[in-house]
Design brief:
With 427 residues, the protein is α/β, with parallel strands linked by helices. It has 15 helices and 13 strands.
């Protein structure tokens, strides 16, 4: 074996010899936009009272208007994080304590804790084996008389099957939230992901496609939901003393407000979104074209009439067929210089909080309280596809952390090919 083909794990040269350039969409435009806001001395103009500044300053309103236009919705509402956005979304729907909301286990923890925040009960449905998104068939199996909403997560930047989800929601009179944190600028059958639900939205934190440091954007076409989102964002319980609000459900307000500097940066970032998504799609396509011949490896699948932002590049690998453990292959790939490699994602229902059913206080609230209508299972086995992927066959690349130029993709491909050529040695 020539030295160039020798695995780095065994002393050979790395296939990816240098650290790949970090994803950094911030340029002079953002610097100038932030500088102008700082020079104006108006870093925020929110007031938590019924007044003209209840909805924030000039840049907040300008960014929200630009987002509403870009995503093709009536209302876009900024918040200081997407976790805040999810909490506001669940509250704005009027979810009651003890209500059940169906959600995927294959997502970031905030998708489910936003439900718990309102003392509602997360019910986990399994994922689609091709897209990693929540499976409509599993959603329907998990509907009970207490189900009030579905939270569809566009995981890894691929949209969930919204036609099927909306059909189920309409049939059972349920509301739908689209957690499109990882999927801004992505399309589902010609429409923007995140805009097909009652309330949807996107994350703006540092490794997302729109980067303002922290932040989120809620989107809706419903005037009433938009007003409730704005109230929850900005101290609702104080504001409603000065105006007539008929529905006081969940009008416990917070400071979920985004500042003027972040919104000024967001305006510049929004202009770059399309190119940022296309760049990631080009890199993912190049990866798929080059990796799909590898024995036992299935690259990400993009459903018909959909696009993906490829926030993650999620692969399924038949490690049993290869005769090498996932951990051993991952060790070899990392040694070759592959960055951002993950051997697991999430199975939220198996986290200690759900296994022990302890959230608020030490006595199992809300599960052990009178507001919980039935025993909801979080046992292993309720989401077999998600559990199998987590336990044995998922392998992913955290694409949003790197630029992935063509030459970078080719180096990563070379690392995979090198490892696959040496599977017998690894075994």
């Amino acid at each position: 074996m020539s030295n160039s083909h020798k695995l780095a794990l065994f002393g050979g040269p790395k296939a990816v010899p240098e650290t790949l350039p970090a994803y950094n969409p911030i340029g002079l435009e953002e610097l100038e936009a932030a500088k102008k806001v700082v020079e104006s001395t108006v870093l925020s103009r929110f007031v938590g009272a019924a007044c003209p500044d209840f909805n924030g300053g000039d840049k907040v309103n300008e960014f929200e208007a630009a987002c509403a236009d870009y995503f093709g919705v009536k209302h876009a509402i900024t918040v200081n994080s997407w976790t805040s956005g999810l909490i506001a979304a669940v509250g704005a729907l009027g979810i009651e304590p003890g209500d059940e909301v169906i959600v995927s286990p294959w997502t970031m923890c905030a998708s489910a804790t936003a439900i718990l925040h309102w003392n509602a009960i997360p019910v986990f449905a399994d994922i689609d084996p091709d897209t990693f998104c929540i499976d409509p068939k599993s959603i329907e199996k998990n509907i009970s008389p207490y189900t009030k909403a579905i939270m569809a997560v566009d995981i890894f930047g691929h949209p969930a099957d919204m036609d099927a989800i909306r059909e189920i929601a309409d049939r059972y009179n349920l509301k739908v939230i689209s957690d499109s944190a990882q999927a801004p600028g992505v399309f589902y059958k010609g429409k923007m992901a995140g805009t097909l639900a009652d309330i949807g939205g996107y994350s703006l934190n540092y490794h997302k496609h729109i980067h303002t440091g922290e932040g989120g954007i809620l989107v809706t076409n419903d005037d009433r939901f938009a007003e409730r989102l704005k109230l929850i964002r900005n101290h609702a319980e104080a504001v409603i003393t000065g105006e007539v609000v008929e529905d006081l459900t969940n009008m416990v307000g917070y400071n979920f407000r985004l500042g003027e500097v972040e919104c000024a940066i967001g305006l510049e970032q929004l202009k770059k979104l399309s190119n940022a998504v296309k760049s990631r799609q080009r890199a993912a396509s190049r990866l798929t074209d080059s990796l799909q011949h590898l024995n036992g490896l299935t690259p990400p699948i993009v459903a018909k009439d959909c696009t993906s932002s490829f926030y993650f590049y999620g692969m399924i690998v038949d490690f049993e067929k290869l005769g090498v453990t996932r951990e051993r292959i991952a060790e070899a790939l990392v040694a070759e210089g592959v960055e951002g490699l993950s051997t697991a994602y999430q199975n939220l229902h198996l986290l200690p909080m759900y296994q022990r059913k302890i959230a608020f206080g030490s006595k199992g609230f809300p599960w052990t309280s009178d507001i919980c209508h039935r025993k909801v299972s979080y046992d292993k086995g309720i989401c077999p596809v998600a559990e199998k992927y987590q336990d044995s066959c998922y392998l992913g690349l955290f694409m949003c952390m790197k630029e992935y130029r063509d030459e970078d993709v080719d180096k990563v491909v070379a690392a995979f090919e090198k490892v696959w050529r040496n599977l017998e040695l690894l075994a």
